[in-house]
Design a protein that fits this description.
The complex is a heterodimer. The radius of gyration of chain A is 19 Å and the shape is globular. By secondary structure, chain A is an alpha/beta fold. Chain A has a domain at about 220-300. Chain A has helices spanning about 15-30, 45-55, 65-75, 95-105, 170-175, 190-200, 220, 225-245, 245-265, 270-280, 285-295, 300-310, and strands spanning about 5-10, 35-40, 60, 80-85, 90, 110-115, 130-135, 140-145, 155, 165-170, 200-215. By secondary structure, chain B is α/β, with parallel strands linked by helices. Helix content of chain B is about 45%, strand content about 15%. Chain B has one domain (about 5-130): Glycogen Phosphorylase B (Rossmann fold). The chains are: A alpha/beta, B alpha/beta. The interface of A and B includes residues 274 and 291 of A.
Chain lengths: ~325, ~170
Amino acid sequence: MKATIIIINHNGCDLLARSVPAALEAARRAGGHPVFVADDASTDDSIEFLCKAFPEVHVLALPKRGFGAACNAGVEAAETDVTLLLNNDVIVTPDFLAPLLDGLARPNVFAVGCKFLNPDGSLTHALGNRTSGQWQGGLLYIHHETRPEVLERTCPQLYPNGGGMAFWRDKWLALGGFDPLFRPLYWEDVDIGYRAWGRGWQVLYEPASAVYHDQGSTMGRLHRPAHIELMSAKNAVLFAWKDLLDIRLFRRVIAAQARWAADDVLIGGLPNRTRALWWAFRQLRQACRARAQAQRERVRSDEEILALSSGGEQ
Amino acid sequence: MSEKAPAGLLLTFARRGEDDAILQAIARLREHGAAEVAAVGTPASAPALRELGVGDIILYGEGHGARAVIGKLRRRRPRTAAIVYWDSSLAGHLKLEALALLTGAKHVLRVAPNSQTVTIGRFRLAWIVFLKCLLACVCTTTAAAICGIAFLCLRARQVIVGGSNAGRV
């Protein structure tokens, strides 16, 4: 099974110096797989550096359209059945590839996510491992498992962290890739995982495929923390508007969102939520179109998706 | 604690990360002559408040209604109340400000992390509560309108694609 490793980059020349050699070594050890870098209009020396230091890497020089669009362009350019997406701040371990491909060989699997470790190898606050979700207070609350003893076996998860995931390219294309609704960042991977489950496929977590991730080292240098928080909150609202199709639950979630403004004055402490609602409202037309598409694709209920992705019985 | 002894009243949501501000508020209450400090807490926040040195906790929630809590607070006749804010913007916290007003405290200390404590009188607090009530009405109406419009549009698109039973399990 051939796979294309795609590293997404924007102004991360120093990060590429560490992540590309690790990816090349892993690709070589797994039998020789192509490595791409999808460059989202970097203004630093990323492209020159890659061409000079790693001529075997295919560089896709893209116009500035954001993380999701760069991922989509990279997957479209790949010619293999399987594709891997990696953030430029993710350092793979030498044998990370084979377990992902084994996971994808299982029936009905769309994607397999890596095991994300902190740079020091710990799991404290590590994000993206064995993800599961629960609707609460107007949003889907994502649980990221961090207990080492629970993270030792392959199991279903809600979505694969976009920073390190392998998937079938044809299924990705059938889903339409990362939705531009979630520009500029965050929740696009939750959305594609949720839609894959809704379409009758599976998403797995693979502990044997370990990668080191320096959380936020890419986004932290591109956006202010307050802006990241606001955009993430906006996308959390849009995710609910797009993907929550169970009308009873949807009514409850929307009612909870309507109460956020009152809570902000009565209690306070989470002022981003009300602003996020306004930012999401500005994308309502797009969200309506996306919801119609989600309705067309869906073969499982929201309840089934959350139960199955958290390891429940099918 | 005797219900007739003058007490300082600590009003806080006791959220994670507020410990320093709570300790600062307790210290300021003592500076204002409070022999003992009482606080309103939920069964969940009470242990944390006790750990921070608050001995007299009036429980709210899980069977302890708002009216009973206000009655208990008034009987303690707090001269000074300290409200702990999440940040220096002093936004939100209308619940605590209204409670401080209802207990009849003459002075209210507004304590926020990394900023100076501000003392305000009862009339100033009443004005703040009034303005925030207005703000709450406007914000809630706007949010309800946004969510209502969003719900109708999103549901309509879903029904057009999936029929009237779309999303009904």
